[in-house]
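User: I'm curious what two different proteins look like when written out as structure tokens. Can you demonstrate?

Assistant: Sure. I'll show them one after the other, since each token string lines up with its own sequence. Here's the first protein:
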Amino acid sequence: MIEHRYLGTVDYATTFNAMKQFTQARDQTTCDELWLLQHPPVFTQGVSGKAEHLLAPGDIPVIQIDRGGQVTYHGPGQWVVYVLLDLKRRSMGVRDLVSRLERGIIDLLAEYAVPAAADPKAPGVYVEDKKIASLGLKVSRGCSYHGLAFNADMNLEPFQRINPCGHKGLEVQSLAALIGSDQVDMAAVGKQLLTSVERALQR
């Protein structure tokens, strides 16, 4: 069983600490959870993050965190799903988890007739070589936290202030840019994303 938590728009640092505390406190009886939320504008830099990929952050704060990967952006109009799973209990490896998360996003986009694909060399989901969703995970005591970020209907300009995920010149995409903002119901997309991700995890 996976419990869903709808958290609205929440501060990044507060949520980061909550994820760590949840993971440290959980035991073999703790239910897995998916947290759906949005963040105010923030850049997050992974453990191997290089300063050179922060081009011009300006007035957007940069937070150093413990997930893998380089720098990414979170902001309004982007759905974030934090994936709090006991991987040991599920006999699931990190690569399998990444593939399942990517599949959930690809299946969601298929509901909007948007063909998308994963790239085994660069985790995430892409539409015509533009990144529409990023992934970053941390595993502690056999349990995962952090997760995925899906660009639904957001201002993409802040991505121009960084090398997204450490890739110079990588372009990003959003669902709204592909099908029109008037076709994107944020609440509906968030629920669809959770459902699609859970379905992929349970396969």
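Here's a second, unrelated protein for contrast:
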Amino acid sequence: MNRTLVLASALATGLAASSLIAQTTKSAVAKPANAAPAAVHPQAIPAKIAIIAFEQGVIATNEGQRAVADIQKKYEPKKDAIEALSTEVDSLKKQYQALPANISDQERAARLKSIDDKEKALQRNVEDAQNAYNQDVQQAYGKVAQKFGGTAVKYAQDHGFTVLLNEGAAQGLPTVLWWQQETDITQAVVNAYNAASGVAPLPPSAPTPQHAAPTGAPR
């Protein structure tokens, strides 16, 4: 169970990713095809790249460490109960294997049913505890990750970095966590492509006519 509890912290990465993206990035929004091309002048800024191991950093914070410790303490009684039931199941199996050969079929079947019932209960308890634990870890991780992401971006800005990369992106977090918006060339490339393609923009949509109410009609 200990190994399961430790590994469960990795399941919260997706939540941290969505929270971090929402707080620390401003995505370039493409304009409608029929809109006039915006005058965009991105700047070529000398790159100063920062690297962060985001997930490890969140867990390494004092708040992250405390959150994990509090959750593990919360689940200690459940863990002890599961271990006790597992020990009981093992003991029943050993007793069954040591039954004398002349025991009745009815008694043997009753022993097997008892073992089966307790094994099923053990499996349910493990699954319920794991699901509840994962939920708690995800919520705690997400709260710390939101604040940690904001701190990481502010640090990068305050120290003159232009790009913040995550070295631990394998678990689902984006590789690029933040960048200087002045270097974003998305709209500029869209404008250049439109000019080179020679394809005219769509005509503007006609406004929806506002029908006047008939004279005397209630308003």
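A detail about the second structure: Strands lie at 49-52, 163-166, 176-179.
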